[in-house]
Give the backbone structure.
Amino acid sequence: MTLWVKILLSVISVAAAFFGGFIVLFMVAFGGAGEFYQVLVPICVVTILLFILAQIWGWSKPKNRLIAVTAILGVVLLSVAGFESYKAYDNSFDKVNEQGVNLEQYAPFKDNTKAVSLDEPSTLRLASYIPKVDGATALYPLYSAFVQATFSQEEYHKYPWFVTCSNTIYAYDKLINGETDVIFVAAPSKEQLKKAQDKGVALKLTPIGREAFVFFVNVKNPVNNLSTDDIQKIYSGKADNWQEFGGKNAGIRAFQRPENSGSQTMLKKIMGDTPLMIPPKEDVVAGMGGIIKQVSAYKNYDNAVGYSFLYFASEMVKDNKIKLLSIGGVAPARENVANKTYPYSAEFYAVTAGTKNENVQKLIDWILSGQGQYIVEKTGYTPLQ
């Protein structure tokens, strides 16, 4: 074989390898095969190309070339077998339900609804021009009960889409964009306040009750109490082992929620001036129910920590595989929220943005009345008084 023939064959081999490798890599990447195979394909392509070039140029002895390529391909096959075995093991666990709760069971005017009712006729009845309401997932059982107590059932059934639960992030977006009249949520984040300001919208926040923000771990974790300083260390990444807090020698996996969700905004307030670490993408859970399921799941039992609101964690998603942590020695109990000894107690709000529906203010005034506050308490939250 002449030198020019070898060069020509080498050029063709390199071009074919790069073209074929690109096609395979494209199929792997867009076929959802994952990062493992996206790394494996180039390794295989380079290995095969080197073997072909060695054959063309006669590098080393044929026997040595065969041994080398066989060994490399053997390692590749073992890697694939190990990866697929781990993936099968990981998939054997129950999938996490991001929402974690069926909100339909709290829907107003529904047979056997879990939304609480008054023991007497409501002093407010909105028979027309009912407001468009939205809010946080954790507060849906509460504002569903408000709707059930004050809206005309006939009017509600005409416009059932007037009562939605988009979650905190989208509820604020809809309010700022003028798509809804009132939302029931935690306090807005800095980003949400800026978004309203940029649109020339003034948010009016009316406190209607109080709730505890809670941290939780798996029941098998021996840690029962953390301080604010402990939480800041964990969520800044300065502490990464439970042994530092009286637990086992196990790394800490600190789950977070998406930006501008009510619970993520609360976490940032607790962190204060301490920078919040940037978590891995898989440690940011979309739904509050999902973060509870992640912490309770068996494969996370020895190292996970998460956060939510008390009513959601203890009533809406009842999971006996998690336990709520005391903060500074104070348990997140209703009486400690009421007497304000639990440090992470915060008001939640009815938020408006200049709605022209006069019934909105009537509804808010009623929520602040004895009947409205009775529903706050009977649902499972802490009334203002």
Summary: The beta strands are 133-135, 182-185, 204-218, 225-226, 253-254, 304-309, 322-324, 326-327, 345-352.
